Amino acid sequence: MRDASFTSWEGLLAALAGGIDEPSVVVVDELPWLLQADPAFEGALQTAWDRHLSRRPVMLVLLGSDLGMMSLLGSYGRPLYGRVREMILDPLTPYDLAELLDVGAIPALEAHLVTGGFPRIAQEWSSDRSVTDFVRRQLSDSTSPLVVVGERVLNAEFPVGLLAREVLLAVGSGHAAFSRIRDRAGLSEGSLARTLRVLTDDKRVLVAQRPLSTKRSRAVHYRVADGYLRFWLRFIAPGMEQVLRGRGDLVAAEVAAEWPRWRGGAIEPLVRASVARMLPDQRFGDARHVGSYWSRTADVEVDLIGADGPAAPATVNFVGSVKWRDSAPFARADLRALAAAADQVPGGASAPLVGVSRSGFSTDELDVALTADDLLRAWVA
Question: Based on the domain organization, do 181 and 236 belong to the same domain?
Fold first, then answer.
């Protein structure tokens, strides 16, 4: 088939099937992009499968990063209904990164904040033993995976000119509330609402969160779901022009300067996911869900809230704080601040207090104290 040409998908797929005599794997990558360019491919694939490929010793793998579109392929009424089995390929976990990079808990968790667990990016880590060294080396080459993967993802899922790109850049820069995203992206409320719905429900690239407490709230904060894309939108996208003209060192310097502060917030979703993997655990009572809390005026913010459900639970099972500092431990002053914040959380006044620290603890008065090693162990399969 090397020099063959075809006038239809049916002809190509039939010829492909005719050449398969031994167990084989056929991979179609970026399927959503292909279907957007030519919707007829879906029907052609059904015909080829029913008439030819299903009778051959072949595994047909359809790949795509648009989870919403991929999940619809096997739905009722679609050509491939009853013919596909859906499988989500998750990125590498922090524990996977620790094994791959041969590093401890803290470097593995922080590497996950930058790579998102993407194997193509993670395998570039090589001998680098710090985030800033890795970022500096990657930004010295405008074709490095850390630079180009994010742009390719956006180009594939959100063509230039689509409002989604502006919204993603706004959320990636740190704006979480609807009004702040609207002002940053310069969109009307109607346009923004529609775009956010696409990004959360269809594309699943954003996560919509509500404050978790015994009091139901209408407030919503948005964050980028993927760790790598969150990092890319915050640092690389705004600095892309500098990277392309050979001054990636300027962007790397900004990352180094902002890293301790940005890392402190970026680690919180990963901590929540790690604690959620520990549940059920008697240390956390009846908690089955982990979220966060913020007041309407944002004067009270709590990193960790544990409850038996994601919306207006009967009881708050724990209230927690994350202190991800280079050297300062979780201290008694942090404990006092956590206790004061817990009093402001509906249902949290008498809840056990949980502390998470990068650099240990100088107080033994917490109900539960979690280290980076504890977080990493939660990801052991």
Answer: yes
Q: Is the pLDDT of residue 2 over 80?
A: no
Q: Is residue 339 part of a domain?
A: yes
- Per-residue burial over 94-113, b if 16 or more Cβ lie within 10 Å, else e, is bbbbbebbebebbbbbbbbb
79 is a domain residue: no
Taking Cα atoms as reference points, which of 339, 176, 336, 153 lies closest to residue 269?
A: 176
Q: Which domain holds residue 187?
A: 94-265
Task: Quote the CA–CA distance of 187 and 306 in Å, as a whole number.
Answer: 35
Q: Is residue 136 part of a domain?
A: yes
Which helix (H) or strand (E) element contains residue 5?
Answer: none
The answer as to whether 67 is a domain residue is yes
Cβ-in-10-Å burial (0-12, 13-18, 19+) of 326 comes to exposed
Domain match, 246 and 283 both: no
CA gap 86, 63 in Å, rounded: 10
Residue 85 identity (one-letter amino acid): R
Give the C-alpha separation, 171 to 116, whole Å: 17
Q: What is the pLDDT of residue 161?
A: 56
160 torsion bin: left (phi>0), alpha (psi -120 to 50), beta (else): beta
Confidence (pLDDT) at 352: 98
Give me the chain's average pLDDT, please: 92
Q: Tokens standing for 297? A: 């005026």
Strand, helix or coil for residue 302: strand
What sections of 125-202 are H helices per DSSP?
131-139, 145-157, 163-172, 178-185, 189-197
Kindly state the average pLDDT of the residues 276-294. 97
Torsion sign over Cα 136, 142, 148, 150: positive
- Give per-residue pLDDT as tens, 170-222: 999 999 999 999 999 999 999 999 999 989 988 889 999 999 999 999 999 99
